[in-house]
């Protein structure tokens, strides 16, 4: 397992990969480095057949994440977002305790199963800050419209009990119990048919859940970037300059 500056990563039993945000000095804020490392670890998770389910949480119970780090601003925050910065059909279970703010809220929104401790509070304050990436618009496809707009427009925090009542959170635990609960769910998922889970998740994400404009834009940009950075593109440009037929190998 590679070493990470901002994450604690461990292989648990039954094919469960445990990933913890670990920037306690910055309240686990989403820096450019953390965003890149989170994308990298999830790409590794998807490619490794030994990894069946991922559990994403944070070190410490008082703060899941303070959102985007203004001191190391992540220009490409989308990179750490499930189904945007990385694509995996394997289940992702997220465990939250304490504050979960801004971009961290959208990570939770895009995960498959969400566990929260009784202290969890979800907050989207961008209307007060004068900035938004727009991805939070998809929240209205996951909880009732007016409840989503209360968070997005009014910027009022959503506490764990209310999040559970709205169906945003799957289970609420005492503080400190959220990770073990998530690991228990992950182990149960790891015992099930990977093919069935992948198929159902793909159906839900690709054909059932509505995608906001920012999600669609990021998916388009990611696909075009993949082409622009491919060996085929390099070969095409070289062949044009050298005035010869291109020899494509279908490699990225």
UniProtKB/TrEMBL annotation:
<dbReference type="GO" id="GO:0003824">
    <property type="term" value="F:catalytic activity"/>
</dbReference>
<dbReference type="InterPro" id="IPR029045">
    <property type="entry name" value="ClpP/crotonase-like_dom_sf"/>
</dbReference>
<dbReference type="GO" id="GO:0006635">
    <property type="term" value="P:fatty acid beta-oxidation"/>
</dbReference>
<protein>
    <submittedName>
        <fullName>Enoyl-CoA hydratase</fullName>
    </submittedName>
</protein>
<dbReference type="InterPro" id="IPR001753">
    <property type="entry name" value="Enoyl-CoA_hydra/iso"/>
</dbReference>
<dbReference type="InterPro" id="IPR018376">
    <property type="entry name" value="Enoyl-CoA_hyd/isom_CS"/>
</dbReference>
<dbReference type="Pfam" id="PF00378">
    <property type="entry name" value="ECH_1"/>
</dbReference>
<comment type="similarity">
    <text>Belongs to the enoyl-CoA hydratase/isomerase family.</text>
</comment>
